[in-house]
């Protein structure tokens, strides 16, 4: 499979600093789950894809803390019950130069696709990024998407430097090449997430005090539970309800969001994928004693030792805010981390810049900003009446969808 970069009229070709660029011819290699442990072609392609992705993250972050592992990717490729995700390794002139992703929920009526187009540093400035982005957009549209979203790591603006503000009025990004490409392709910066990091050793000195203060505000109305690994069976249904509320309760600016259908079975699938990926989950939840409902939770995911832990979802039910439950579940989980994994020294998290309640909690714990993530969105024109719709979601797009 190949996607020619040349052959377009000059006025349609990307430009950089006034220079017209022609991307080289690109070969697209679609990733599939290996048939078994001896499926060398599939496993080799996966290893090359991971290595390519990690060249990008290491160049941006300066270390391997944000790397992806082969086990993480294999787990994702094997768990396809809830999403359709197409992944491609992109090759130019015999060299691995990028990777692309398009993903959409399998739920009927899902219309939002999440895209990613990465280029290794040494291949930039040749129009490859735009060529990858344009092609992966078409894959997403072929899956039925009418809204395209991309979450991209950026630097925060520096004083006196060019910046792009979020449509919410909260947060801004440096106008780097990735941001300029997104704008030129018609994407709007709907939301900015602050990327923050916690020095765990320093934070441990005040965790007990923060937890005691949160407990005093919560009173006796709530019970705390925490655990490592899979959710206890008696809490599966309650935790599934909280995960579903992440869509409705978390700040989303003007980003389109598909409804997510969560139940105990789906939560079990997610946790099984974490385990297969080599990720250890630490979770804490606050349970409202009077109703028995789980009303606040937080999740830490721990990859292999030496890498930072990642603070994943944290949510307080809208009806139970104002009782310091966010601080309560976070401190409980951090104390659990200290007991079970005292070697962990860093935690990385993401928060919408308009989500001041959660940012206040994180700032009090000692999280400091290290970067920004942009939530970019473009709505595509609706399909013309009479034209065939995208392929059914009960099957994945074929590799032929990538042909020029």
Beta-strand proportion: 25-35%
Which percent bin holds the helix content?
Answer: 25-40%
Distance between the termini: 8 Å
Shape: globular
Largest sheet, strands/sense/barrel: 13 strands, mixed
Structural class: alpha+beta
The H-and-E topology, N to C, reads as EEEEHHEEEHEEEHEHEHHEEEHEHE
* Cα radius of gyration in angstroms: 22 Å
DSSP, total strands: 17
Give a written overview of the molecule.
By secondary structure, the chain is of the alpha+beta class. The protein contains nine helices and 17 strands. The chain has helices at residues 40-61, 70-78, 128-142, 177-184, 200-218, 236-249, 264-276, 325-340, 356-365, and strands at residues 2-3, 15-16, 19-20, 26-30, 83-92, 95-105, 112-119, 147-154, 163-165, 172-174, 188-199, 222-228, 280-288, 294-302, 309-316, 346-352, 368-379. Strands 1-4-5-6-7-8-17-11-16-15-14-13-12 form a 13-stranded mixed sheet, with helices on both faces. A two-stranded antiparallel ribbon has the order 2-3. Helix 5 (200-218) packs across helix 8 and helix 6 (236-249) packs across helix 7 (264-276). The N and C termini lie close together (8 Å). Residues 1-20 and 388-404 have low confidence and may be disordered.
SSE diagram, text form:
Blueprint (H helix, E strand, L loop, with lengths): L1 E2 L11 E2 L2 E2 L5 E5 L9 H22 L8 H9 L4 E10 L2 E11 L6 E8 L8 H15 L4 E8 L8 E3 L6 E3 L2 H8 L3 E12 H19 L3 E7 L7 H14 L14 H13 L3 E9 L5 E9 L6 E8 L8 H16 L5 E7 L3 H10 L2 E12 L25
Parallel strand pairs: 7-8, 15-16
Antiparallel strand pairs: 1-4, 2-3, 4-5, 5-6, 6-7, 8-17, 9-10, 11-16, 11-17, 12-13, 13-14, 14-15
């Amino acid at each position: 499979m190949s996607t020619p970069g040349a052959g377009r009229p000059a006025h349609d070709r990307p430009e950089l600093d006034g220079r017209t660029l022609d991307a080289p011819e690109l070969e697209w290699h679609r990733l599939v789950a290996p048939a078994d442990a001896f499926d060398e072609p599939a496993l080799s392609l996966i290893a090359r894809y991971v290595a390519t992705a990690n060249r990008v993250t290491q160049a941006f972050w300066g270390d391997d803390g944000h790397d992806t592992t082969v086990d993480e990717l294999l787990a994702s490729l094997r768990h396809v019950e809830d999403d359709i995700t197409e992944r491609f390794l992109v090759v130019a002139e015999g060299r691995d130069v990028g990777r692309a992703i398009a993903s959409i929920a399998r739920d009927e009526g899902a219309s939002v696709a999440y895209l990613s187009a990465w280029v290794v540093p040494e291949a930039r400035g040749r129009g490859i990024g735009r060529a990858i982005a344009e092609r992966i957009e078409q894959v997403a549209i072929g899956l039925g998407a009418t809204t395209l979203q991309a979450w991209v790591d950026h630097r925060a603006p520096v004083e006196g430097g060019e910046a792009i503000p979020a449509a919410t009025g909260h947060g801004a990004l440096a106008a780097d090449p990735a941001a300029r490409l997104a704008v030129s392709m018609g994407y709007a910066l709907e939301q900015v997430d602050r990327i923050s990091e916690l020095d765990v050793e320093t934070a441990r000195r005040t965790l007990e005090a923060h937890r005691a203060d949160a407990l005093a505000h919560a009173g006796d109305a709530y019970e705390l539970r925490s655990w490592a690994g899979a959710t206890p069976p008696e809490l599966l249904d309650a935790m599934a309800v909280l995960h579903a509320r992440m869509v409705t309760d978390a700040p989303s600016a003007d980003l389109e969001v598909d409804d997510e259908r969560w139940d105990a079975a789906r939560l079990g699938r997610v946790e099984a994928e974490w385990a297969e990926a080599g990720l250890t989950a630490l979770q804490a939840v606050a349970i409202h004693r009077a109703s028995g409902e789980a009303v606040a939770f937080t999740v830490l995911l721990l990859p292999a030792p030496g890498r930072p832990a990642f603070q994943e979802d944290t949510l307080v039910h809208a009806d139970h805010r104002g009782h310091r439950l966010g601080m309560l579940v976070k401190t409980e989980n951090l104390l659990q981390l200290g007991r079970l994994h005292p070697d962990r020294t860093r935690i990385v998290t993401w928060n919408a810049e308009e989500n001041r309640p959660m940012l206040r909690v994180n700032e009090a714990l000692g999280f400091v900003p290290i970067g920004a993530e942009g939530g970019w969105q473009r709505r595509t024109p609706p399909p013309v009446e009479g034209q065939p719709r995208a392929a059914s979601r009960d099957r994945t797009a074929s590799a032929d969808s990538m042909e020029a």
